[in-house]
Amino acid sequence: MKPAPFNYIKPSSIGDALAALGEHPEAVLLAGGQSLLPMLNMRLVAPSHVIDIGALPAMNEVSIADGWLRMGALLRHCDLAASPTVAEAAPLLQAAARHIGHPAIRNRGTIGGSLALADPAAELPACLLALGGRLVIEGLDGERVVEAAAFFTGTFETALRRDEILRAVEVPVLAPKYRSEFHELARRLGDYALVGLAAHGQIDNGGVHDLRLAFFAVGDKPALAVAAARSLEGKSLSEANIAAAVALLADDIHPIGQPGYGERTKLHHCGVLVKRALSRMAA
Ligand SMILES: Cc1cc2nc3c(=O)[nH]c(=O)nc-3n(C[C@H](O)[C@H](O)[C@H](O)COP(=O)(O)OP(=O)(O)OC[C@H]3O[C@@H](n4cnc5c(N)ncnc54)[C@H](O)[C@@H]3O)c2cc1C
After folding, report:
1. Is the minimum distance from the CB of 101 to ligand 1 under 6 angstroms?
2. 126: which residues sit within 8 A by CB, 6+ positions away?
3. Which of 19, 55, 221, 274 is the least buried, fewest Cβ under 10 Å from its Cβ?
4. 167 part of a folded domain
5. Ligand 1 centre and the CA of 148: distance in Å?
6. Rounded to an integer, what distance in angstroms lies between the CA atom of residue 92 and that of residue 251?
7. SS3 131
8. With a threshold of 0.85, does the pTM exceed it?
9. Which pLDDT belongs to residue 118?
10. Could you tell me which of 185, 53, 57, 68 has the C-alpha nearest to residue 116?
11. Which domain holds residue 92?
């Protein structure tokens, strides 16, 4: 199918893009187009205007300041995966980037597009939750910063307002003794996840601290397994302690099943991923 007719705008600054968004209430933003173009072609969306921000300057940079790694929203998945700065400061993001679609998708798709879309099965939202990240949002009134935990509000829903642009993403630089693990179950390499886990925590004095277990593809948005993680605070990642934490997952996570893949199987797989992640963290 072909998209319904729309007007195309290519602003040369973020200010122009915001002005165009304000002027056209039925407009949508286009970044890498890897989700928007199929949605347009299938006529799932029929905007009056498409505002192409894909080539805006200074929105794909990677930098470190005041203990935070900052990545422009237009950073492509392939560049995220190849960045030596990200490798050192947030290896979890690189581990996740390799699971996003196929090379063709990663060559065009941007981190901002993935986060703004907020697909419940997407990898990056869960990583941001695990890392305690935040999103820098720009509107005509100026900039605001939203914690990842408050940004993802539901299936394809975020705290972004219609007339705002996600400008950058920030995560704390990997602190000493912190380790991350990323695990995903998918039917084939490159498919969306059936279920996935981004885990992050500190291993010190033989125990785990500040553990965060963020699941994706389980519900309408990424979810932290709070009780399971808290049960391990200060404890060793022994087989018995991990098994006790896995037993608490049913209190934390309430997976939504899909045809041929029921809630109980999904919950079981969440436990399998926790065991995999934590035994590797302990190694
Ligand atoms: C075959 C296939 C497989 C895929 N597999 C995966 C996968 O495994 N995991 C995954 O996460 N995704 C997957 N995707 C989806 C897609 O790759 C990502 O969602 C993609 O990275 C989106 O980024 P984009 O730059 O292409 O966004 P676009 O398609 O350009 O935009 C997506 C949405 O975000 C909005 N948007 C984009 N940038 C901004 C911004 N800076 N501020 C505000 N709003 C913005 C747009 O208006 C639009 O609504 C897949 C897609 C395809 C076609």
Report:
1. yes
2. 96, 196, 197, 198, 214, 215, 216, 222
3. 55
4. yes
5. 17
6. 26
7. helix
8. yes
9. 98
10. 53
11. 62-172
